[in-house]
Amino acid sequence: xxLAAAVLVYAAWLAPTPADASAQAVKLPETRFASSxxxxxxxxxxxxxxxxxxxxxxxxxxxxxxxxxxxxCHTQESDNFAHTVHALGMQVALAANPATATCxxxxxxxxxxxxxxxxxxxxxxxxHDGGTPVAAQTEGCLGCHSGGxxxxxxxxxxxxxxxxxxxxHNPMQAFSxxxxxxxxxxxxxxxxxxxxxxxxxxxxxxxxxxxxxxSCVDCHNPHGTLNATLLKTDxxxxxxxQCHAEKRGPxxxxxxxxxxxxxxxxxxxxxxxxxxLVAPIPMLCQQCHSHTRHPNDLMTELxxxxxxxxDERLMGRGCVTCHAxxxxxxHPSGPRLHK
Length: 339
Ligand code: HEC
Ligand code: HEC
Ligand code: HEC
Ligand code: HEC
Ligand code: HEC
Ligand code: HEC
Ligand code: HEC
Ligand code: HEC
Ligand code: HEC
Ligand code: HEC
Prior knowledge:
Blueprint: H1 2-14, H2 18-24, H3 67-73, H4 75-81, H5 85-96, H6 103-107, H7 111-115, H8 134-145, H9 157-160, H10 186-191, H11 195-200, H12 216-219, H13 236-241, H14 256-260, H15 283-286, H16 319-322
Helix pairs in contact: 3-4
């Protein structure tokens, strides 16, 4: 991408006169909209101007009928739609060019449907049983929204599991303040399917997602990524450093499991232990530290402060009473992560 941009700049620099400049410009592949590669930063943002009807593979012969015809039968839907981002932009484009597709930019040409509305597949329906294959549904949306965050949609776990854009988006009505999601918030949208994950955020210790300060898409890109779990960054730790930058270091004395993965000790979506820990201290530490100067004793109620043989590894904050810098230390005398 950078290389291509550099070529563009170089080509522009070489161009002797403005007249020659267009001949030097890099030729983009033909697409439905010349601007649909904008996600890559080549061109202006995708617009509504001169939009064409989407392709309905079930009715290649169908002709566009215009928005007035749709609205005559679908008054309620048209009224709801009128307040959305798409409708506002489409009205402007329609005023400039009356042949611009609006409803049909997503639903495909409507003549077959207007003639026989109950025939399955006569119009692109964004459902799993409406007679339109999911690939045909997403193709229409991607005509304007390919690239950028959706570069890896094809082959992503959601695409492979037959999700359509409309499983998370409902452009027919402004249900959410932004993003046209099917539910009011991003997290509730995801929770229509990932109930278990949303449930974990109700545990005693959790990051403030139920409180609305962060959402699933702070860490995940639901449109697909190049890694397995739809993380926006290459590694788990990079994700955490976005907000917990102080844990990145560099540290004079590192703690090996922290460098490897935060998930060695933390449960990201919620935990019933203090501070999202996977196990309570001292057991958390003893999973790995069994042959140190502090033997891997079995801790019982006797080891509690009120017990017969109080043990400092259970009292107070346990191991981290003394080893307070468990994420790494920058103190010259901190090799044991004490300070
Ligand atoms: C003559 C009236 C009429 C016109 C014109 C019409 N529709 Fe419909 N449409 C209907 C009826 C009736 C249904 C319900 C069909 C059913 O329940 O099987 C429907 C259903 C639909 C559905 C849901 C399909 C499904 O399988 O879930 C969509 C989407 C739709 N119309 C979009 C449009 C669009 C876009 C236009 C304009 C291009 C349009 N309609 C024009 C009468 C019409
Ligand atoms: C940006 C793309 C887009 C545009 C433009 C659009 N629709 Fe839709 N439409 C959808 C999607 C996606 C759904 C499925 C929503 C869902 O999940 O229920 C839908 C659903 C529908 C339905 C089925 C009933 C419903 O509400 O679920 C009708 C009818 C309909 N649209 C009519 C229209 C009409 C009429 C217009 C123009 C005034 C229009 N649509 C413009 C994407 C679009
Ligand atoms: C004719 C081109 C076109 C088509 C087809 C189209 N969109 Fe859009 N869409 C746009 C434009 C332009 C915007 C506004 C972009 C902006 O303001 O940054 C937009 C905005 C959006 C937004 C962001 C809304 C917000 O509040 O920020 C979502 C989500 C979206 N579209 C989803 C869809 C889905 C899903 C479909 C298919 C059902 C679809 N679009 C079809 C052109 C299109
Ligand atoms: C698994 C759920 C899910 C699916 C499937 C999905 N999206 Fe999204 N999409 C989201 C969420 C969540 C957001 C973020 C909304 C916000 O920030 O408020 C979003 C944002 C967007 C936006 C606006 C911001 C941006 O990234 O430019 C567009 C446009 C969009 N999606 C288009 C699509 C299209 C096209 C498809 C189908 C190919 C699709 N989405 C499929 C969940 C989904
Ligand atoms: C319509 C249902 C549906 C919705 C809505 C949905 N997902 Fe998914 N998601 C799935 C399915 C199905 C899978 C693949 C099955 C599995 O392995 O769990 C999946 C997989 C995932 C995975 C990868 C799991 C793995 O093991 O690699 C992540 C991460 C994910 N979804 C995040 C999200 C986020 C974030 C949202 C909201 C923006 C969302 N999903 C919305 C159905 C959905
Ligand atoms: C603070 C960042 C963050 C937030 C917020 C977040 N996740 Fe995750 N998610 C992760 C990480 C990290 C993983 C584990 C990745 C790995 O093991 O490689 C993960 C894994 C997953 C998985 C697959 C593994 C599993 O546990 O089943 C799903 C599905 C998932 N997340 C969905 C969601 C949903 C839905 C939301 C919102 C309710 C959400 N996540 C919020 C960071 C986050
Ligand atoms: C989008 C920002 C964001 C990302 C990304 C993020 N966090 Fe957080 N995290 C927060 C916020 C906000 C808090 C609450 C801070 C507070 O209350 O002072 C928090 C709190 C925590 C806490 C303390 C919880 C408690 O109960 O005291 C832990 C542990 C934590 N995060 C671990 C992680 C890990 C591990 C990752 C990477 C998988 C991660 N965070 C990614 C925003 C984020
Ligand atoms: C070896 C286990 C371990 C690993 C690995 C680990 N942590 Fe922690 N973390 C802890 C313990 C123990 C606490 C609780 C400390 C306390 O109670 O004082 C904690 C607390 C936290 C807190 C809340 C208190 C604070 O210090 O701000 C955040 C945020 C946090 N960890 C983020 C991270 C991030 C980000 C990573 C990965 C870079 C990570 N942790 C890796 C053990 C670990
Ligand atoms: C996933 C395994 C793992 C967990 C869990 C873990 N550690 Fe470690 N820890 C290590 C490794 C590996 C080293 C590096 C050992 C080395 O360099 O010889 C280390 C080093 C240390 C050191 C420095 C020791 C030295 O010899 O330099 C201290 C102190 C320490 N850990 C304390 C803790 C405490 C306290 C906890 C619990 C909050 C904990 N560790 C949890 C794996 C773990
Ligand atoms: C009362 C304070 C205190 C508590 C509580 C404590 N430690 Fe230590 N720890 C020390 C001291 C002091 C050293 C030795 C430092 C040195 O020799 O440089 C040490 C050394 C270590 C070392 C390095 C051992 C070695 O052989 O070099 C590890 C690992 C360690 N502790 C883990 C733990 C774990 C795990 C717990 C909880 C089960 C724990 N500590 C609880 C004070 C404590």
